[in-house]
Amino acid sequence: MKVDETKRSKAVSASELAQMGVCERLMVFEHLYGKRPSMAQRKAIKRGLVEHARFYQEGIHAPAMRGRCYIATLILGSGHETMVLRQFRDQVLRPYGAGRWTIAMYYRTAPAICQILNHWPYLQPAVRWVLRLIARTIDCLMEDGEGDHGA
Amino acid sequence: MALDQWILFALGAAILMALIWWRHRLRPGPSEQSWLPKELRDAELVYTERVFRSGGEVPIVAKCDRAYRVKKGEIVLLELKTRQRNRPYLSDVIELSAQRFAIQMQTRECVAGHGYVLIRRANSGTQSVHRVTLLSAEEVIALATRRAAIFKGNTVARYAGAKGLCRKCAFASRCRAVTDPFNEFAG
Fold this sequence. Notes:
Chain A is mostly helical.
């Protein structure tokens, strides 16, 4: 545990390292005497923090948060079956136009389906059974595919 | 028109201008699709504001603003900067490279050798994306090692590349007076 803490304290952050690209001497002075930002710099830092918070909110609400396999994550959690479905999406569907269209349609409808499943939880076991069946079939097919490539 | 009417007109115009400005400030930024590079438009956003640790001999901690997984399967990094000048700096490249190093070491995933710097202009609110080539893992380690050597007093810190930085620097006069700031203090 102690070793971990020492390692953590020794770790250098990306922004500290980036400071070397600005001025190494400023980096040393700030280390010795603390940061002394001007009024304008302070304002810029504040503005940057606000923009970053906004950017984060945009990110989590944007449709680009495509990594989430909404229904599968809700029903199956983040286990192996969800990973299989994600692999199927990225390796089989995404390379093709029709596949990308399917993904887009899925992400358009999935949040509403999740709301329905949350509202009527007794529907979840049936959906879970179907999703597990699909995931296992895909898993078997993908394994076979990899085996064929290997041979 | 009488003077009081002019005053009322000016007051009304001022209120209208203030309302327009206020609405403009509240208006959300342009949609992501308008500024996202073509490569990232169909990519999957996998990490936002997530911290990674590299571990190893030279531990690096990095918080990435956004990381996208592109069709090829590799991860492409994007860093947000708010500034007046619409250009990426060396510090942006170093920051993204350190993020790349930390993500690769922690997750063992393949991170692209290039990244993007999204610059939001402070006054106009316009934003543009710049593609930058990142440093290799060896170069990042070398930088971290150099930093450690500077703080140990084994290497002398270099001056800023841009003279404009010195004009705004709070330590400018002290900096001119000493050759090696670290050893001056240590001695």
